[in-house]
Design goal:
- With 173 residues, this protein is mainly alpha-helical.
- It has a single domain, classed as MFS general substrate transporter like domains (Growth Hormone, Chain: A).
- It has eight helices and no strands.
- Helix 1 packs across helix 4.
- It is a multi-pass membrane protein.
Length: 173
């Protein structure tokens, strides 16, 4: 759940995040595109590197899950500690790459740990984690933090990193 929470929270709330940082309406399109391209690249990169390292150096796949988790933590920390609109480009790339790496590694790790005879039931059960992460973090938490900050600011739009910083601080934990 923690592997997908940050990416889903960023992706589901990117429009309000961009607006709170001074972006223009519709400005989230560039960040969603960057995230998506990095997601695809992360799947390819982490999948290939983990497979190569497993066979060439006997490096277990969970090591690469730690790397993807580190990238996720780094992007969440940057968002929690006061991101700017300019830094959001790099954060979108970093978060997308980590998110894609996570999605490439989880099925392979599940088959490595539990075998192919149990793979379908294990992987199907694991699919509840992104659903819970999306609902819990991207919807409930991000929505309540944004609503609280909107009430505090008293305006029609939330302005500044306080609109989402606490959300990503919780995701980071």
């Amino acid at each position: 759940m923690s592997g997908s929470a940050a990416g889903l929270t960023l992706l589901n709330n990117i429009a309000s995040l961009v607006m709170s940082l001074g972006g223009v309406p519709g400005g989230q399109v560039a960040f969603v595109s960057l995230f998506s391209v990095a997601n695809a690249a992360g799947r390819l990169l982490f999948g290939h590197l983990s497979e190569h390292a497993l066979h060439a150096y006997a490096t277990p796949r969970p090591v690469f899950l730690l790397l993807a988790g580190g990238l996720t933590a780094c992007s969440s920390w940057l968002l929690a500690s006061g991101a700017s609109l300019r830094s959001l480009y790099a954060i979108s790339l970093m978060s997308g790459c980590a998110f894609g790496g996570h999605w490439a590694l989880v099925p392979a790790t599940a088959s490595d740990l539990f075998g192919m005879t149990s793979f379908a039931s294990v992987y199907s059960t694991m699919q509840f984690a992104p659903c819970l992460a999306s609902f819990g973090f991207a919807t409930l938490l991000a929505g309540s933090v944004l609503a609280t900050e909107l009430r505090r600011q008293g305006g029609p739009e939330c302005v500044g990193t306080t609109c989402f910083g606490a959300t990503f601080a919780v995701v980071l934990e």
